[in-house]
């Protein structure tokens, strides 16, 4: 892929035409370099915005362009590019950022990325994380976070993905990387499952050694068998509770009847005791004797009265006896009647109690069934745990064996790839020596045999004095290595933002320009860089006039200034926060 042209549907936009090969410089100038107005800077003229527009046209996530689309309503941008000698155009509008027009065919962004991926990268099937978007960023680093580390082209800090991207672009066997990833993930999955068992309330005691699984399963089998036998002989009475209520009412009635019978019996006994007491017939004579002893004599009228009294008394006694006998007869009749009722109700109670004894309530049956189900579930969990524990141990042993085998295969593979890796290492080393001739430098690719997701340890080394610019130089050398000596891609263009040249002294900046001129001269590769005028001024002080003109001025494709909004990339003043 090479970039040809960036344009927009608005006349104020500064259309950018790129040289097909060699160097391309986009320069940000101050209109008047002597002016010290802090508002007149190199920032905000559109250098970094141009990179964002290119990524926008090439399928970047629209969620990262919310402010961009909101501020630039009714704008559409077109990128013309070439892949394998064939020209393409990609147009994307801020009004409908979910779709891209590729060669006049409107595609969803995901489909667009898939089509471009097919011609730009040789990604094997069934390898997750590799995509056009994840890999293309290494050739046009999209933002300031892309310039922190040589092997990170975006804010993604996933170590495995970072290793995978770089391994792929360097041409390493990513199937080895994917195999280790899958083995480690499977091991983590098994360890997580085992951890879940350890946290299960039922299984905690087994992990601490307080219980034996086999013995517990045997105990559960016995309980289940006993309960299932009970359930088999279980007679369910749907009216159990109704019968129970009826029995309770009969029993309550029996209790009252028996109490009444007892009370009536007590009354009969009381009457019998009263009847057994005979009245004293000598009462009149006793009264006469007392008066005689007191020398008092009754006249005839008194005597007659006493006789009448005795007659009245005998009549009274007779009436009392008759009344008591009548009460006794009535009480005995009631006792007999209630006793018959008691006998009848006792038969009914016995019948009801026998029914209740032969049957059980449905809820008792359900409760018993639930208990059996719970015991079976516990037994099933324990059996599953017992089986899985054995299976897990076997799988962990197999994974560890496979990890050892894979590690050995990787060692053998790197040994076979020694020449290819040496070519990349020496290319990087040759570039780094241009900046740090007395420092040990180069690319190192080693086998990571640790218990982790990383298959390869990839490092770009420049052992120097830890100068401020060493990281920028490392990124510069590594990116050129991927472009010229990388594998699995059809990218022939590299774009660096001006921030790459920040933080390094003028000699290193100048050496970068010389390296670019030497490396891209007479090559089919395309290099694009945005550069601030003050950075160029530092370079100009070291290069002679002819060199500066030949390397820089001849390859300037766009100049942007801060003098007026019309001289910025968009040609208008806009505040984009993305």
TrEMBL record:
Among Pfam families, the record links this protein to: DUF2326
Q: Which domain of life is it from?
A: Bacteria
What the entry lists under InterPro entries is as follows:
DUF2326, P-loop_NTPase
In the UniProt record, does the keyword Coiled coil occur? yes
DUF2326 domain location:
432-573
- Which ranges form a coiled coil? 176-260, 321-405
What are the entry keywords?
Answer: Coiled coil
- Write the protein's name: DUF2326 domain-containing protein
